[in-house]
UniProtKB/TrEMBL annotation:
Domain of life: Bacteria
InterPro entries, per the entry: Na/Glc_symporter_sf (IPR038377), Na/solute_symporter (IPR001734), Sodium:Solute_Symporter (IPR050277)
One Pfam assignment: SSF
Cross-referenced Gene3D superfamilies: Sodium/glucose cotransporter (1.20.1730.10)
Protein's name in the database: Sodium:solute symporter
Keywords recorded for this protein, A-Z: Membrane, Transmembrane, Transmembrane helix, Transport
Organism: Streptomyces cylindrosporus
Length: 485
């Protein structure tokens, strides 16, 4: 294992080094939170793919393949569909708004007063997303070093908090690009073909497994619908995703770079399902489907390759964890704390320091929460139920329906969030009903309240349209970035 350990240690050291390098570039709020809004197509595509394909997509995607066969690809596939929809239909308009958070968009569209409530809901979502990613370190470090769960979470979480705090979005962007390359090599180019060959090829896999493992809809229509509702729509409105859209250099970069990343997600989804199916042939009696990834890596891969593939899993977890962490800190500082405090910072440098402090504070909170929690699936379900049930309607309504009002938006956020929480308490956290009925309640509240209240002021809508058309004043930037980046 010495070679594998060396690969992992070099990888982790590289992440910290990039955090230090990114700190030198983060000289303004724009640099720190959205990488100066200057990423070119190649870097934008890689980092966007990195953040959406995390531990759930890698370890969980293989686990679903182990349990259901090729139809286990649907969870990650719906993530890719959501990213494609965001990129094709909304990303250009989102990028032109020149805001930092989803709540700022809601305030701009509705004329204020929606920010704190929507910020609290979005903060809860990003916090739980960061926690679930951080918990996943325990699985990977247990395979690598037979490490205690708490120590593994502290080690992995501390590295992510360190490089995120140092350089903000610049550090996260640079590390995500490396993580994207490592994931591509480790999972798509190495683990996928090796797993298929070890399982005897597709003909042997078909001979050994029930036909349901090769049915594209074998996982069930209701499950697929739920994945679409939670993950496809969740991709459209999450702060962690929007914050990456804000980094794009132009409308074209956001649209086409995101389309490339979404297409990559579709390929990654199929790869995970195939690897899981191969693992089912090799290890038909694993205790948990989520053990499939670690087991096939540990038992079937040669020295060195095993370290690289485990580094790929670590990369997947770190990219999602760091993206969720900076999103959580940005919302906490800009949408909640600054509004409650009621006064602005005294300068751009102070804003960098303030956001850096919030990343550190939120990071420590995430590590502590991850140590206390055990059930990753439940935490992730709570996060996405709150996001979709509380914020989908007012966000998409603001982008698509001119008659929507601030009172309607506040009603949708409040009713949808409370409905989801109450229904989860009644039906159970993992039930499908909370997000179904919560979303319907949010939609009804938004439509009814918007129609019975005074339309949004014409001046507010004029400012909104000016932003959407890209006629807002440009932000000051640091030195230009080369076209290749």
């Amino acid at each position: 294992m010495a070679v594998d350990y060396t690969v992992i240690v070099v990888y982790l050291a590289g992440m910290l080094a990039m955090g230090w390098w990114g700190m030198r570039r983060a000289r303004s709020k724009s640099d720190f939170l959205v990488a100066g809004r200057r990423l070119g197509p190649a870097m934008y595509s890689g980092t966007m793919a990195a953040i959406v394909l995390g531990g759930a997509s890698t370890i969980g995607g293989v686990g679903l393949g182990y349990q259901y066969g090729l139809s286990g690809a649907w969870m990650v596939f719906t993530i890719g569909l959501g990213l494609l929809a965001l990129s094709v239909f909304f990303s250009a308009r989102i990028a032109r708004l020149k805001v930092y958070t989803v709540s700022e968009m809601l305030d701009l569209r509705y004329g204020g007063r929606a920010g704190v409530i929507s910020g609290v809901v979005m903060w809860a979502y990003t916090l739980m997303l960061a926690v679930t990613s951080t918990i996943a370190y325990a699985t990977i470090f247990d395979v690598l070093f037979d490490m205690n769960r708490t120590v593994a979470i502290i080690l992995g979480g501390s590295i992510v908090v360190a490089y995120s705090t140092l350089g903000g979005m610049w550090s996260i962007t640079l590390t995500d690009m490396v993580q994207f390359v490592v994931k591509t090599i480790g999972v798509l180019l190495l683990l996928l073909p090796i797993a298929v060959v070890k399982a005897g090829g597709f003909s042997e896999m078909k001979a050994e497994l029930p036909t349901s493992y090769f049915d594209p809809l074998g996982i069930g229509g209701e499950t697929i619908f739920t994945y679409v509702l939670i993950y496809t729509f969740g991709m459209l409105i999450g702060q962690d995703i929007w914050q990456r859209v804000f980094t794009a250099r132009s409308d074209r970069t956001a649209r086409w770079g995101g389309t490339v990343a979404g297409t990559y997600c579709l390929a990654y989804a199929l790869a995970g399902a195939v690897i899981g199916t191969a693992a089912r042939v090799l290890y038909p009696k694993l205790g948990s489907p989520d053990d499939a990834f670690a087991t096939i890596v540990k038992d079937e891969l040669p020295v060195g390759v095993r370290g690289l593939v485990l580094a790929a899993a670590l990369a997947a977890v770190m990219s999602t964890s760091s993206g969720a962490l900076i999103a959580c800190a940005t919302v906490a500082n800009n949408d909640i704390w600054s509004r409650l405090r009621g006064k602005a910072t005294s300068g751009d440098h102070d804003e960098v320091q303030g956001n850096r402090a919030f990343i550190l504070i939120m990071g420590l909170g995430v590590i502590g929460t991850a140590i206390a929690l055990n059930n990753v699936v439940e935490a992730l379900t709570v996060a996405y139920n709150l996001l979709v049930g509380g914020l989908l309607v007012p966000i998409l309504g603001g982008l698509l329906w001119k008659r929507g009002t601030v009172q309607g938006a506040l009603a949708a956020v409040t009713v949808g969030s409370l409905a989801v929480i109450g229904l989860m308490a009644g039906y159970g956290i993992l039930a499908n009903e909370p997000v179904y009925y919560g979303l319907l309640a949010s939609l009804a509240a938004y439509a009814v309240v918007s129609l019975v209240t005074k339309p949004t002021d014409a001046t507010v809508l004029a400012t909104w349209r000016e932003r959407l058309d890209g006629r807002a004043a440009p932000e000051p930037t640091s030195e230009p970035i080369s076209a290749s980046r």
